[in-house]
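Any chance you could type out some protein's one-letter sequence along with its backbone structure tokens so I can compare the two?
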Amino acid sequence: MAAQNNTPADGLGLKHPLSVTVGAGLDNLTRLGLKTETTMNDPVEEAGEFSEMLISAHAPVILGEMRHNIAATDTEFRRMSIELIITFIDAARRQPHVRQVNMHFAPKIWNEDYQTRGNEGTYELQVDGVRELAAFAAQYGIEIVLENNNAYWTGVLDEVAHDDVVWTGRNAYFGSSPEEWIQICEDVDRPNVKLCLDSSHTCTYAHTFPEDKREERVLAFLSRPELIKHVHWNDNYLHDIRGRVDSHAVLGTGSLPLELHRGIKSLDATLLIEHFYSTEELEGELEFIKSL
């Protein structure tokens, strides 16, 4: 009988191979038995030596110097945004093992000086835009997974309580709350459109609620596990001010509920550790996952 070449990623109890970002390097991916995903800033056609390890790809969020917006009321800008994602999907599907493209929702409102077009989007155009992308992706057996977005605390002082923030008119994306995230997927109603859960983003959203409500708000993202087919797995800080930003903390070092981490581990979904800081910390994360 041939000897087995076990890696630290074996025996984690996951339904699919575990991934980590390309920043971990090819040596770590090979040695630890991990897969990978390109980031939103990586040209997927330039995956190079990572091609054989690449199983998912993150669509871009930038069009020129602006945030793209597939839900924009500016018809021309919306068209340009949709074509940007179509071009990305077309490049991703040419990678030998990529069958999943992750994408952010569109901005509802984005008030920044550099955003000279596409500042506002509507729910109906968000749904229509995803349906168009799904139709293109379906031709090539590509699944689109929609990622819950951050709540944006930019410019809010640490000492300002959540209920003193004037949220009207602030930068906001569709799909930040668990209810809207799930509802958009249901309204798109296409077999190749599912959800991507970003655990760190759930925390920035939960901080818009009183502390005693935050855990419930985070766990609400697990209410439809059958729709979740991909995860960006990070820790974050549910009970202190650090959790207002997308901390991408090492798994097991933050204060997201263990129930959330255990729920993620049990999903029938591809899981990406969406950060890399050191080999030692990555190995510790594998041990944390194994212990759940």
About this structure: The two ends are 32 Å apart (CA to CA). Residues 141 and 147 are 19 Å apart (CA to CA).
